[in-house]
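Thread title: Can someone regenerate the structure for this chain?

I was given the following input by a collaborator and told the matching structure tokens would be attached. They weren't. Posting the sequence so someone can regenerate them.
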Amino acid sequence: MRTITLGIVWVFLCPSVDAMSLKGQNVDQQEEKAEVREETLPKRVKRGWMWNQFSVMEEYTGTDYQYIGRLQSDKDPDNGSVKYVLSGEGAGTIFVIDESKGFLHATLRLDREEKAFYKLKATVVNKQTGLQLEPETEFIIKLQDMNDNEPQFSQEVYTASIPERSDVGTPVIQVTATDADDSMYGIGAKLVYSISRGHPYFSVDPTTGVIRTALGPKDMDRETKEHYQVVIEAKDMAGQRGGLTGTTVVNISLTDVNDNPPVFTQSVYQLSVPESAMFGTVVGSVQATDRDIGRNAEMSFSITSGDSMGIFDISTDKNTQNGVITVKKPLDYEKKSSYTIEIQVRNSQKDHVFMLRDSKDMATVQIRVEDVDEPPLFSKAHYLMEVKEDAPISTAVGSVSATDPDQVRRVITYSIDRRTDMDHVFSIHPGNGSVFLLKHLDREQKAWHNFSVIAKEFRHPHQSSHTLVYVRLLDINDNAPTFATDYETFVCERTKVGQLIQTIRAVDADAPSAGHSFYFSLAPDEANTSNFTIRDNADNTAGILTRRSSYSRFQQSVHLVPVVITDGDYPIQSSTSTLTVRVCACDHKGNMELCNVEAMSDSPGIITGALVSVLLCLLILLIVVIFFTTLKRRRKQEPLIDSKEDVRDNVVSYNDEGGGEEDTQAFDIGALYHPAPALEESVKQRRDIIPYDTLLYPSNLNNEDVWEFINQKVLENDCNPTGPPYDSLATYAYEGCGSVVESLSSLGSALSETEQEYHYLHEWGPRFRKLADMYGAADNDFS
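Best answer:
Regenerated them for you:
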């Protein structure tokens, strides 16, 4: 019989004290009372607390409430006057208590893995007064574990790898499983690992879960089997019967090591290449295989022997790992039509642990050279020829030579690419390749001539090749030396004999092989009479020296010294150059102070420039004068009307007032009354206008003579070919008839001394509004 008692002991200074005893019983067991001994003590001792845990089985499946135990107090007279009160975790829901008897039950099915224990509190109160008879005390209800959880691995699937050819017992990976059951209670949570799939390659440690290799290096070969799936079991209850089991899957892969050498797929390879293949042309490829992968399968090819050492080359294609054979040197079918080479292949990454010997493979490659129709081949890559610059036309400069490299040996013809010799300086013989001159040469103008020669097969002109020809012109002494520059110096009026006043140098367009040698001297006719002398320095320079101690710039301000310069080559060339020496006034140190104007401008170059400038200025001045004269003549035209005063009417002035009707000498007034005879004397009509026989003015009987006079004058002007073309002649002398405003002329206004009134202009309508505003405003302003 199992009894769990929660006891509270009180000790007083009394003869005897009953202690409260709390007892618990199981459902199938009877109650048992605990006896408390009474001891008489000489003094009062503070009460102590003592209590035990209650326990209950998890996963209870019965239909009734599960009995846990009983709480009992010595304050309970067992007559129903007290009440047991329960509080804490799950009180009233999970756990209930009989208020009168103190029996404790669990109402629900409990799971230790969810909650392992519960903390509760209990007390005793009087039902009638509600007073607490015992202080509240705490106790624990612990759930007893049962094996109801299977082991669980941390991962459903594990992934691991190990190098191939590993030794026996090499660790691969560790798997771990856990059990939710109580490891402190029994063996329900004690796990044991085992392997259910993966024999005989792997094993597992039953305690730690470490997976290891179970076979040797020869059996763990990636090239034979690369992937393995291993199933590991974890069983609780130390692996005994009745325990629960959990499983997991471990995928194990073998990683590659370089344990296999490369091998050629063929022992003999046959390739072909045309003889025209250039450097780097691919001849073909050879293939080798390696059972390894990745970097362990990288291969390196090389040529070890054969009759084509240096003719071909082999390299590795990084993408396909094939050996690529290429042309390294030019091929010639006529010289050698086939080649045989030995090649080898080996791993680029060597692993001496697994490959103890230098693993390699050998193969033979036979290369056949194919014949092609090749263009002519020149004997040289380029040709250098030399010819003297004075060589006559048709002189042979040199020759080029080309042959057909094919076995047929076709005839070759030569020509010059005229794009490189556009001046047609050279020609070439089409049969033998000899180069000739077509024009005269001058080295000083062009020292080198370069052109291209084309060689073609006679019956196959599309087969052609080019070569460059460089022609160097050899110099002959055909140019005389001259001054290096236009020398001009001065000499002081007071000097001394033998004074150096200028050092001169010479240049020559020729280029002798031994270098230039110049000789300087005075002209023969000046050798004895010249005021200066020359000293040859023997280094292609000369010095000009004075022969006198004094010179006068007033007597002769400029001296011209002719210098003869002769070269030392054959045939000898010489020239005479003139040195200009000005006579100037100098200070005591020989520095020039003053020279004559004539001397300063006596140089031929200066005179020529000055004359050109003067003539240019005169020409510009003459053009300006002609331009303004022409413009003035065009503007100077006498107008038909001389506007000496501001006259509103167009009055023609003839500058001849006459003497009126009595003046019969100046003007015949009778012409106004008899205009007909005057009309008969009309001269030849003008061509620039169409004459009118009559004016289109209406006739006025009162002014008939005046009208005919004006008509005659207009006709005379229209028919006068010598008069100015003033076609816009207008006159207001004849107003016509029927005007409502009468005469508007101001010619008769001077006869009246009365002030003019212009208010009537406002009555003439809108056409005269502007005129009315002008004259009306004038009257108001001056009044």
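The chain is about 10% helix and 35% strand.
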